[in-house]
Amino acid sequence: MTQEEYFRNLGFDVNPFQYTNADKEVEYIGNYFITPDYFEDVWGDPLNPVSNIVYAPRGGGKTAQRLMIEKRAKITPNVLTVTYANHDLTQYNNINEIDLNYHLTFLNRLLLLAFFSKLENPDIDFTYLFNFNERQYIYKLSRIYLFDTPASFPSHAVNSLKTIEDYAIDIWRNLKEPIANIIKQISSKKGVEIDLSKVEIDRKLEFSHRDNLNNLIQILKKLGVDSVYVLVDKVDEQNLTGNNPENSFKFIEDLLKDLELLETPGLCFKFFLWDALKQYSTIYARPDRVFAFDLQWSWQQLQLMLSKRVNAYSKGKVSNFEKLLDDKKSFGRIILFSELSPRDCIRICNRVLSEQYKANPQSLTFYSQVVNRAIEMFCEDKAKELIPNSNNLNYLKKTNCVSLLVMR
Fold first, then answer.
1. Which of 25, 172, 236, 258 has the CA that lies 20 to 30 A from 364?
2. What SS3 string covers the chain?
3. What is the Cα–Cα distance from 270 to 63, expressed in whole angstroms?
């Protein structure tokens, strides 16, 4: 029996535990998402958006919340989300070179791209909505931000503008020509062809990133965008931040400290941050004006999440995770050893699925001894992650009891 046949035999089209990253499960996540108590606070009032911070451990559900904000925005009129999660930092030698201008430049590029994407709408009359001076300003901004973009920008931009209508964003997918040429095509359809190579660079505008951002917010309002949500995620997954909380904080430090920017009318920032950054950000962030929330999971929430997950992946054939276990106590052991981490719950379940396939793929339930073995294997992997020094880990194993290692 192949693994695909094994999954189908259990009631699934695919392995329901193969991914631990919510970005890989956009199709299913709405069906198994567990809404935190404060989710409505983070969403807020789109007509009066405010910035927030959400802290959670790695694998604690930050990206899932971001995705649900994107999904909600897509069905909410006049809300544009900009997912600020993918960056090409190869031109920088260290994280200290990243400043506010980097962020403002990147955001202005994304907002301009959103503008031209929305301009694709056949119902929008460009020359009627924008007077001559406004059009000239838009051309100059396009020359500054979109004429000479990094090679990685087009793909990052398409992934960032999740709430742009499909008919508009399609033109940017699989770009095989410069962005300037596509803008030329879009503007030509509107009767005003923009050749960015012939637009004179305005040196004053070139260094006015903050003013340009504020003006772009107003320009987008003319296209029906009342609020722009900038969703900041994965700051610890960039090549210059990696597994370092301090560097991860430095990457967004200038954004978090700039209250004027965070309170720009019509614009808000939603920061989804690794909780290891909290020790740094609480020093600079203003909790009285930028409210922060901690994402914590209860035992019952994880039980519900696993059941909703298998229900989603089986299209209702498996309504409750407990039905997959021949010993109901195994459910509790999985959650116990996950230490209330959704990601680790999924990792254990994936290991259970794999071990059961090797033990007996014909079985429609997971044996208790298989679950125990899977948990033991997960614990070995987790121990190596928590204690990367193999000598320390081997010493701890030899003690055969709970011990405290003091590492200098």
1. 25
2. CCHHHHHHHHCCCCCCCCCCCHHHHHHHHHHHCCCCCCHHHHHCCCCCCCCEEEEECCCCCHHHHHHHHHHHHHCCCCEEEEEECCCCCCCCCCHHHCCHHHHHHHHHHHHHHHHHHHHCCCCCCHHHHCCHHHHHHHHHHHHHHCCCCCCCHHHHHHHHCCCCCHHHHHHHCCCCCCHHHHHHHHHHHCCCCCCHHHCCCCHHHHCCHHHHHHHHHHHHHCCCCCEEEEEECCHHHCCCCCCCHHHHHHHHHHHHHCHHHHCCCCEEEEEEEEHHHHHHHHHHCCCCCCEEEECCCCHHHHHHHHHHHHHHHCCCCCCCHHHHECCCHHHHHHHHHHCCCHHHHHHHHHHHHHHHHHHCCCCCCECHHHHHHHHHHHHHHHHHHHCCCHHHHHHHHHHCCCCCCCCC
3. 11
pLDDT above 50 for 407: no
In 3D space, the residue among 37, 10, 15 whose CA is nearest the CA of residue 25 turns out to be 15
CA 166 distance to own-chain centroid? 19
| Separation CA 137–CA 278 (nearest Å) | 40
- Placement of tokens 């229900």 in the chain: 311
Residue pointed to by tokens 């009032």:
45
Residue 269 region by backbone torsions, left for phi larger than 0, else alpha for psi between -120 and 50, else beta: beta
Mean pLDDT across the chain, nearest whole number? 87
| Predicted confidence (pLDDT) per residue in 341-391, tens digit | 999 999 999 999 999 999 999 999 999 999 999 999 999 998 888 777 777
